[in-house]
Amino acid sequence: MLAVYSVVVQHVTHQSPINHAELGPYPFVLPLQFGASTLLVISAFFICVTIRRGETGKWLRNRLARLLPAYLLAVVITYGVSRAVAPAFGWYVPNVTDLAANLLLVQAWSPTFHWIDASYWTLPVQVMAFFAAALLWPRRWTRGGALPWLLWSLVVVPLVIRFVWRDDVDAAQWIRSVFDGLALHRVALFGVGIAIWLWTRDRFSGKHLAAYLVAVLVAQDAHSRFADTWSTVAFGVILAGIVAAAGGPDWDIPGLRQLATPIRWLGGISFGVYLVHQELGFVLARFLLDVGVGAWGRLVACVAMAVVLGWAMTRLVEQPCHRWLTGDMLLRARVAGNAVVEAIRDLPQVPATPDDLPRQTRRVNPAAADPLTPLPQWAMATSQLR
């Protein structure tokens, strides 16, 4: 929760005047960029926690059903609002190509694509992480000594590519597209989440974890050419808190205990808040600025809008779509599959004579219509759904 709402405040107070100079200044500025990185670390940690509980394909379907419907709707809404207001504001007007690229999660693969909302950069990264986890978990990459080597490669390999091939000036476009499209400068953040989980399972020593965290922090600062070291320091402090929370007892202490209910509620709608807070917040801030609302009023209104719309996105889109895609829809598919199997079984099984068969069938396989031939493999598999 802290990560998402720090992103909201940072984008309102710091990022909005960068994107649109007329929207600033605000009463205070939160310039430290650590929230999105924290989200990826936490996402990787809970991938490790949840993927172990059942069949990998079902887990992947569950993750995508939670993530994609709300995201796709948020893209369409933000696109429509931007198309409606951007010409009057003098802002960039997204086109159909931008919409398609954002819906397909390929915004970072070409400089001709523009982000409908720049905060959406974490969504393609998370989806790739889900597919990678589903691919690697059943295999030996998650066992024994292979996993530490994999985690360290997430730190070292992108650094080598970044400073040898992916130069900011001379690099070929295809190298930039692959590097940025795969978010190689961010993949080590998933390694952090995995490393913390391994440490809680006594598969990483404390010294190994500490060395890995320091290496990731240095690598992240190096990817930005050490231009934002204070954000890296703030991220390091947050990582220390995550490690303490993951390895210690629940923080059931006075103060936090009384705030448990609102914290839980805000945490439950955090993904919806993340989807609607930035570009729509910029639009609201511009409207408020034009009617003379002051800096504090714009700040409070933008945060309140993010919470209200985030709640609506969660309750009206994310949760019902997840239930339908993982529950009702699958139940209907099972019922339909069972009906197909029963219909096949009820077909009349009349033995055919060779004279009744087409000439080419008699030559190739005279026994093709044998009533004892078993059901096709797909039908047998469908029957197991019952």
From TrEMBL:
GO terms for molecular function: acyltransferase activity, transferring groups other than amino-acyl groups; hydrolase activity. Residues 2-314 form the Acyltransferase domain. InterPro entries: Acyl_transf_3_dom, Acyltransferase_3. Keywords: Acyltransferase, Hydrolase, Membrane, Transferase, Transmembrane, Transmembrane helix. GO terms for biological process: polysaccharide biosynthetic process. Pfam families: Acyl_transf_3. The keyword Membrane applies. GO terms for cellular component: membrane. It comes from the Bacteria. The chain crosses the membrane at residues 28-49, 70-93, 113-137, 149-165, 177-197, 233-253, 265-289, 295-314. This is Peptidoglycan/LPS O-acetylase OafA/YrhL, contains acyltransferase and SGNH-hydrolase domains. It comes from Actinokineospora alba. The lineage of its organism: Bacteria, Bacillati, Actinomycetota, Actinomycetes, Pseudonocardiales.
